[in-house]
Amino acid sequence: MRRLFPVTDVTDATTAPASDGVPGTPGTKDVAREWGLDELAEAYAYPPGAAGSEGPEPWLRANMVSTLDGAAQHDGRSQPISSAADMRIFGTLRGLADVVIVGAETVRQEGYRPARAREDFAARRAAAGQGPAPAIAVVSASLDLDFSLRLFTSPLLPTLLLTGAAAAPDRIAAAEKAGARVVIAGGGVGVEPARAVRALAGLGLRRLLTEGGPRLLGQLVAADVLDELCLTVSPMLTVGDAQRIAGGPSVAVPSRFELTSLLEEDGFLFSRYRRT
User: Fold this and answer.
1) Which residues is 181 bridged to in the sheet?
2) Which residues contact 258 (CB under 8 A, 6 or more apart)?
3) Is there a contact between 271 and 259 (Cβ–Cβ < 8 Å)?
4) What CA dihedral angle connects 63, 84, 150 and 164, to 10 degrees?
5) Which of 5, 106, 125, 168 is within CB 3.0–4.6 Å of 130 for a Cys-Cys bond?
6) Can you name the residues that pair with 259 across neighbouring β-strands?
């Protein structure tokens, strides 16, 4: 892993020499080394204001991957365009979050499972006042989900279902019977993004992470509730008609974000953008 941005006047110590030379010295070939947990956790730390149940505001970040030609998936899944380093960052972002927000269609396509407790994050999460793993919050208007999935039958924390007030009572009953916690986050059929963020914050879940899919991310962008985008650019070309990382109607005025961090490993770029 190499840090490309921000640039400092100090030689970046994220590479190691392939020979006995000094990193960055002409005539030696530097090779990227794998970052440890502490380095990744520091690189992706939430802003201090989002920490703890008393934090003034929740912080919503998205983690997505895209190919060079803009595809967010291949054959309906993100895994084929990912990498080992991307999955380490994926795990780090989950390890830092209070809750992972995901759309129902992504749950179906990706075969979502409960977040697991990781021993290497246990002390960090305990010190931050967090549970052993993030909760999973599924956004669904219809609640048309398979409640026999492990996501509902064996999570460390009850899976949350964000839905609207007009959701079918029989589906709500089925979800609750399966052990899920239904959270009303909309006055009609669907979920209102700003209300969903407030509802999760009201449960003490302020470090928010969404992993999509594209339709959900598009709704969050359109509602102007996204604070940060962690985007992996995969050095692949897929062509086809795969979705972009965000879909839906265009916004009246494009949202402007600023680059705060850029890492690289094996040709993959790991960028971090924040709302300006």
Assistant:
1) 160
2) 273, 274, 275, 276
3) yes
4) 10
5) 125
6) 273
